[in-house]
TrEMBL record:
CDD domains: BCAT_beta_family. Pathway: Amino-acid biosynthesis; L-isoleucine biosynthesis; L-isoleucine from 2-oxobutanoate: step 4/4; Amino-acid biosynthesis; L-valine biosynthesis; L-valine from pyruvate: step 4/4; Amino-acid biosynthesis; L-leucine biosynthesis; L-leucine from 3-methyl-2-oxobutanoate: step 4/4. The lineage of its organism: Bacteria, Pseudomonadati, Bacteroidota, Bacteroidia, Bacteroidales. It catalyses: L-valine + 2-oxoglutarate = 3-methyl-2-oxobutanoate + L-glutamate; L-isoleucine + 2-oxoglutarate = (S)-3-methyl-2-oxopentanoate + L-glutamate; L-leucine + 2-oxoglutarate = 4-methyl-2-oxopentanoate + L-glutamate. This is Branched-chain-amino-acid aminotransferase. InterPro entries: Aminotrans_IV, Aminotransferase-like, B_amino_transII, BCAT-like_C, BCAT-like_N, BCAT_family. One of its GO terms (biological process) is L-valine biosynthetic process. It holds the Pfam family Aminotran_4. Belongs to the class-IV pyridoxal-phosphate-dependent aminotransferase family. Acts on leucine, isoleucine and valine. SUPFAM superfamilies: D-aminoacid aminotransferase-like PLP-dependent enzymes. GO terms for molecular function: L-isoleucine-2-oxoglutarate transaminase activity; L-leucine-2-oxoglutarate transaminase activity; L-valine-2-oxoglutarate transaminase activity.
Length: 339
């Protein structure tokens, strides 16, 4: 695709050639279908439209320096979608079907995978929808699983840099025993207003405390949180945050680097004790945190004194990226290579 300015792609939707689809009807998954249409045709009483019976995933494919295409821990995305499906009564997409459809949609759209040098990647969006009609609040009896892809620009255009976050005490993203651990659209609808207010006030994203006590750290918008102190990687244990695959991998890399890992409740006050902190997720890998401001109390937690990312965050980030790009050995077997 010579017409693209690969280095200046936004994080947005760009039409590609094909998407792949599979329907669940009469209790089983059908054949994989290839479509060149961006439109889906569903019943107006579909459960995804009324009762939020839908879920999605997000991962990336990379064109690597050795010319190969790699996707990172795809089986984990399949497992998380299966967990979400159990949570809101949808049929589980088997891992083999998930992986086969992902490989297929990437191959079909190979010309849209940005070159390595651009820092851009191909974003993969799997989507599972309750398409069967219901008027009462019940699960659908038909489902559509679809995957589309779109090229997206690098998160850090001017190099790895810090961002500031805003604690929003007057909003909850998810309830302690609600759907926060699942990747369902309703959680994101619940975050739109807080996210807009944080952006309008000049912050990278909103930062949530636990919904019950407003005491412990939950998540940073659409990313998990970690803090570093005393050679330890500390990340929240909570029943209302999404289990991030990037965070799970960072914990392993921290152990590989000889650090300790703690998964536990993190009281807001503890923020002032961290030497470094970051938001972790597919979008940025690590977005290092400069400061976190509690918008209601006015309290500021300055994490980076010089405004720059800390050395451990940078080391973790580089190690992670090098594994994703096949530059360093993939000792944990995280990558799927598409030739
Ligand atoms: C709410 C939320 N938390 C955390 C993450 C990070 O998860 P992952 O590392 O699997 O992208 C995401 C992104 O998917 C998210 O939407």
């Amino acid at each position: 695709m010579d017409s693209f300015d690969w280095g200046n792609l936004p994080f947005g939707y760009i039409k590609t050639n094909y998407n792949v689809r599979c329907y669940w009807r009469n209790g089983e998954w059908g054949e994989i279908e290839v479509s060149s249409s961006e439109i889906i045709n569903i019943h107006m009483a579909a459960t995804c439209l009324h009762y939020g019976q839908e879920a999605f995933e997000g991962q990336k494919a990379f064109r690597c320096p050795d010319g190969k295409i790699r996707i990172f821990r795809i089986e984990e995305n399949a497992a998380r979608l299966q967990s979400t499906s159990r949570g809101i009564l949808m049929p589980e997409v088997p891992t083999e079907l998930f992986v086969e459809m992902t490989k297929k949609v990437i191959k079909l759209n190979e010309e849209f995978i940005p070159p390595y040098e651009s820092g851009a990647s191909l974003y993969i969006r799997p989507l599972l929808l309750g398409t069967g009609e219901q008027v009462g609040v019940h699960p659908a009896d038909e489902y559509l699983f679809l995957i589309f892809v779109t090229p997206v620009g690098p998160y850090f255009k001017g190099g790895f840099a810090t961002n500031d976050y805003a604690i929003v005490r007057n909003f909850d993203r998810a309830a302690p025993l609600g759907t926060g651990i699942y990747k369902v659209g309703g959680n994101y609808a619940a975050s739109l207003l807080a996210n807009k207010l944080a952006h309008d006030a000049g912050y990278a994203s909103e930062f949530y405390l636990d919904a019950k006590e407003k005491k412990y750290i939950d998540e940073c918008g659409a990313a998990n949180f970690f803090g570093i102190k005393n050679n330890t990687y500390v990340t929240p244990e909570s029943t209302s945050i999404l289990p991030s695959i990037t965070n799970m991998s960072m914990q392993q890399l921290a152990i590989d680097l000889g650090m300790k890992v703690e998964r536990r409740q993190i009281p807001e006050d503890e923020l002032e004790t961290f030497e470094e902190a970051g938001a972790v997720g597919t979008a940025a890998v690590i977005s290092p945190i400069g400061k976190i401001v509690d918008l209601q109390s006015g309290k500021e937690y300055v994490i980076s004194k010089d405004g720059k990312p800390g050395p451990i965050s940078e080391k973790l980030y580089n190690k992670f990226r090098n594994i994703q790009y096949g530059i360093e050995p993939d000792i944990h077997g995280w990558n799927t290579v598409i030739d």
